[in-house]
Fold each of these.
Amino acid sequence: MKNKYAIGAFNINNMEFVQGITDAANERQSPVILQASPSAINYAKIDYLIKMVEAAVETTDIPIALHLDHGLDFETCKNCVDSGFTSVMIDASKYPFEKNVEITKKVVDYAHSKSVVVEAELGTLAGVEDEVNVTEDNAKYTDPTQAYEFVQKTGCDSLAIAIGTSHGAYKFKGDAKLRFDILKNVKEKLPDTPIVLHGASSVIPKLVEMCNNNGGDILGAKGVPDDILRKAGQEGVTKINVDTDLRLAMTGEIRRIFNSEPSVFDPRKYLGPS
Ligand code: G3H
Ligand code: 13P
Ligand code: ZN
């Protein structure tokens, strides 16, 4: 926050994601947040994820946090705190303000008693969230005054806000635009609270093309361009969440290999490069 840059928080689902992300972060000597959604935990199993992240910590020399992404209830957050996550997100943003405060505060009280930090969310992102589907019409930007009250009442350590991004590969129909006026207003009210930007994949055109050129059907995909992400980092966003770009990278390369080398059937030959 002091140096006005954001830390990347990347979603992990399997060993290749953990290795790819931490190798890249290690190469750049950048601290990194590895995050797992409830459906990733359901897929890979919590013990596997934790052991893989422990291996990443042991084999690199960068600071690595293990974070729960979009925990939807107290039990999920508690389970991750008890299992050794260093940080959890409680996403009760689909509820009315007071209920969001109540659920978030319960998680904060428990997590803080175990020295674990908590990210919360206020406002609703357009698009598809983990098990929450919100149409673009219902997208609700974060109200800066409410954001201040929310942080005071819950004691959360960082706050995810809605300023125009959405999850997935289809973020904007026209030009990519974020409400930097809202971010500025939130930061004026909460200068000491790290702000989190969800739905921050840039939906790298080269990767979309790689998918589409090899039998994929990802048309009209659009993300948040790098210069906008950099500006967000300079103006108060401290954590930038990326999942979609990793999915596109993995799928694009697998598709390319399947297409160009049809005789390959050793999973290491396509999972490794992907
Ligand atoms: O924000 C949502 C993340 O992209 C996680 O998605 O629930 O499909 O793992 P997932
Ligand atoms: P993307 O879909 O833009 O990668 O967003 C990921 C995210 O916000 C995870 O919480
Ligand atoms: Zn998210």
Note: Strands lie at 7-11, 32-36, 64-71, 87-90, 117-122, 127-129, 132-134, 158-161, 195-197, 237-242.
Amino acid sequence: MKNKYLTNVYEAFKERYPNEEEYLQSIHEVLTSLDVIIHDHPEYEQFNVVERILEPERIISFKVTWLDDKNHVQVNRGYRVQHSSLIGAYKGGLRFHPSVTRSIFKFLAFEQTLKNTLTNLHMGGGKGGSDFDPKGKSDGEIMTFCQAFMRELSQHLGEDVDVPAGDIGVGQREIGYLHGYYKKITNQVASTMTGKHTLIGGSLLRKEATGYGLAYFVEACLNKMKDTSLKDKKVIISGSGNVAIYAAEKVLELGGRVIAMSDHSGYIYCKDGVNLETIKAIKEVKREGIKRYLEHHENTKYTEDPKKMWEVETDIALPCATQNELDETSVQHLIDHGTMMVGEGANMPTTDKGIALLKEHNILYAPGKAANAGGVLVSGFEIAQNAQFNTWSSQTINDKLRDRMEAIFKNIYETAKQHNQANDLQFGVNIYSFKRLAKAMIEQGVV
Ligand code: NDP
Ligand code: 2IT
């Protein structure tokens, strides 16, 4: 970063938030792109737009106490980072995972703001959740926790205020409990959560949306930038949760072959392609470890360490698990094996050094802010359907999702090209979103 204003802002954030590693990583990444255009935009410094966009509007942090099955009182921490309402009501998922910190929610909320801006729907950005660990908890405990969490969070939500959805550890089951309890204590049936079951106002294909959207985005990149497609490509996908499973489903539909998938404990490799129905049965229905796949299929190898999956020879790698899961060393393995593309289903799954290495070796890199926008897009469709008192068919949603993902690709591809940074989708995404947010900010005055 060369520009003095940007450097000063970044240094100030480092001083203000010295322990927020992920948050600093996510803002540094965007500031580096901005460095290229900052001279053309004196108004950014004039109105101090950069600092104002980076700093979250509001952070809510609260205690969640609940009673487990053994009648022990448990205490967790809950958060909601309402990052930006420049473009619309705060919108973004909830994550339940023991590893979460304020820094992680701040980076997620910041990236969500940029991502939501790309969709061209009027959604601001937010993210939240808790250090609650759903693993090994009974259904009753999950419900009790969700209710205790919502008791506090409900004060900060509303269909025109903040509309959460799922993320790691929060799927349709949790959204159901959260939504049910929200209605109970507010006495209103407003559309304040997305990712609901279709019977209670959810959208068809919301569950599939992030993964399907990722595959559509990857296909668009391959078509335009490599003159090829997913057909007959070998694909490895990290994770075997919501995003990973439906990315795999659409990759298969588009003719690719998914040869490896993982979870937090290890990965399976199957040279002829994994059986997705078995993975769904293990991970979605039984909520067990992916290792159990071995009990159902021969010719499969299981390896304890999920990180080792990046050593598998593949054409395309789709990190769909968590942040910073793909580091420089893993990227080097991909390069050594001739991988042509990395498409991010997870949020910030590739480290800064990993991204730099990919670019240096001309590996097509599709950043998560764009490539995983399908989930929040269909959340937007859910809000639209609820407002219209209507339901759209899965064909309609699938077509709209594909069209919108292709449009996002086109917008960021063209943006990069216009600024003489052709093929740099990371630059394209950051600049496309930032410029819109900056304009929206200046338009609304100092508020
Ligand atoms: P899930 O909780 O459904 O799945 C997460 C998966 O990742 C699980 O299979 C989990 O394993 C696995 N996992 C966790 N840590 C690791 C690791 N270090 N190595 C390998 N696998 C690991 O979450 P989602 O699929 O919803 O979210 C995945 C990512 O996608 C996150 O970064 C999220 O922010 C992002 N995202 C999610 C969207 C959504 O709509 N849900 C939208 C856009 C982005 P295990 O089962 O063993 O715990
Ligand atoms: O990271 C994400 O985009 C999500 N977890 C989905 C957000 C949403 O509101 O659907």
Note: The chain has three domains: 1-55+423-447, 58-189, 207-366.
